[in-house]
Write a structure and sequence with these properties.
Number of helices: 6
Helix content: over 70%
Distance between the termini: 52 Å
Structural class: mainly alpha
Shape: globular
Radius of gyration: 16 Å
Largest sheet: none
Oligomer: single chain
Length: 164
């Protein structure tokens, strides 16, 4: 059961770049969640997947200390959904219809999340270097926060500067 969760229904077994596949699958499911229930449903799913990530990764790695296998992508799902929550909230507060999630928002969230997840600057890298199951998840949560903030900054620049 934990293998099913940690690989996000075996998406993590796709090669190459299983983390990118996991993030892409998370975006697809996140867009569906947004469409079905707008920001509140995406937020609820994100809040639910975070503790599920910590639990399942700890369980999967209990006999493999210090490992961070590439097939574990539930942490990417949690981080990617955090990043998607930022534009989702903006669209919800702006009153957009739930199936309207303009592509710059989700593409920016995806690209920035992958950038921060691979680059691992500052606190993201520190979390990754913990070498424990919590660190496997925490670096992606931080990457999601950074990507979400970056997405909002890019939207502000686009709408406030480029579209004037």
């Amino acid at each position: 059961m934990t293998r099913l969760i940690t690989t996000f229904f075996f998406v993590g077994l796709l090669r190459p770049a299983s983390g990118t596949w996991g993030s892409a699958a998370a975006v697809a499911v996140g867009l569906i969640l947004h469409g079905l229930g707008h920001f509140p449903l995406l937020l609820a799913a994100t809040v639910a997947v975070i503790p599920l990530s910590f639990w399942s990764v700890a369980r999967e790695l209990r006999d493999r200390p210090g490992e961070d296998p590439s097939e574990i992508v539930i942490d990417e799902v949690a981080g990617q959904w955090i990043a998607l929550c930022f534009p989702s909230a903006g669209f919800w507060f702006a009153g957009l219809e739930s199936w309207n999630f303009p592509w710059p928002g989700w593409v920016s969230a995806f690209v920035l999340f992958r950038l921060f997840d691979v680059w691992k600057p500052w606190i993201i890298g520190r979390a990754d270097r913990r070498g424990d199951p919590a660190g496997v998840v925490l670096d992606d949560l931080w990457a999601g926060i950074f990507a979400g903030i970056g997405t909002i900054i890019l939207a502000a620049l686009s709408h406030g500067v480029l579209m004037r």
